[in-house]
Amino acid sequence: MPRVKPLVLLNSLAILVIAAAFVWAVRLPAPDAVLSAAPNPSVGIRAVAAGVTVALPINAEPDGHPEPGGAANRATPQGGQNANGTEPASRSVVEPLSSDPTTGTAPLPAAGWIASTAARTGIPSRALQAYAAAASAANASQPACTIGWNTLAAIGLIESGHGTHGGGSVMENGASSRLIIGPQLNGDGYAPIPDTDGGALDGDTRWDHAVGPMQFIPSTWRTAGRDGNGDGIADPTNIDDAALSAAIYLCSAGRNLSTGQDWTDAIMSYNHSADYVAAVRQQANAYAALAEPGG
């Protein structure tokens, strides 16, 4: 009998330990709860007046499912990686397609910040200037949006390598040295979109193609296109116009991109793909981590 007491004590202690572990495990939040509770400002916004740059991480998970209608309308985030880089046939004028007065009139980011952040991130300085100016202009017109340059830069990288796909580059005036025309949207791996612009933007009178460094389809450009450099023309092949148009598009529907759900919804509306959302989030976070922290 004396030997039974130690066994009883040991069994009781084991039961208490197991019970305590169970209670601790039950009180842990689910992984989704941790992610949804995390802050999600898609920032990196150049605050010219204050002379500071803010860069915070993006932690949203792709749980929104709005209807597609963004730049590429694709099933997978291939973007400009499959685009064709071709020499510009001409400098034909692309007339403004929107009556919205928003233009890229916000002050340009400081040259020192552009140079330093371009060197840190590998983003071509002229493209970075367009992303930062577009975020500043979009937030000036829609203060609740809080879109950041790093979100635009992540999209620009995925869509066209910041306008370098096909061996081209962004020139000082914001135009592409080689036109970037995406694949024919004929239903073969992409949502089928019959021609909507008579081939004016993409040169194809049968099917639409995504166009320019931010890969806008003509039907979307007709409503989302903005003049980002104040020259009176909304041109999807110009990175200033394309970046501002992307920013305004992402900010639409009253979204606040400092919240995880709105940020996810915005990127999902640009390309209805969870993989695309994850890729943009990862790249935007990488840019935020590398960026010059101050003005």
SSE arrangement:
Elements: H1 4-27, H2 31-37, E1 46-47, E2 52-53, E3 84-86, H3 111-121, H4 125-141, H5 149-160, E4 179-181, H6 218-224, H7 239-251, H8 260-270, H9 274-290
Antiparallel strand pairs: 1-2, 3-4
Describe it.
The protein contains 9 helices and 4 strands. The strands form 2 sheets. A two-stranded antiparallel ribbon has the order 1-2. It has a two-stranded antiparallel ribbon with strand order 3-4. Helix 4 crosses helix 5 (149-160). With 295 residues, the protein is mainly α.
Strand count, sense and barrel status of the largest sheet are: 2 strands, antiparallel
Strand order of the largest sheet: 1-2
Number of helices: 9
Name the structural class. mainly alpha
Q: Which percent range describes the beta-strand content?
A: under 5%
Helices and strands, in order, run as HHEEEHHHEHHHH
Task: Give the overall shape, derived from the CA principal axes.
Answer: globular
Quaternary form:
single chain
Count of beta strands? 4
Overall pLDDT metric: 73
- Computed CA radius of gyration, to the nearest angstrom: 24 Å
Distance between the termini: 79 Å
- Stretches where pLDDT is under 50 for at least 5 consecutive residues are 1-10, 13-57, 59-104
- Share of residues in helices: 40-55%
In short, what is this structure?
The protein is 40% helix and 3% strand. It is mainly α.
Keywords:
295 residues; mainly alpha; two-stranded antiparallel ribbon; 9 helices; 40% helix; globular; disordered N terminus
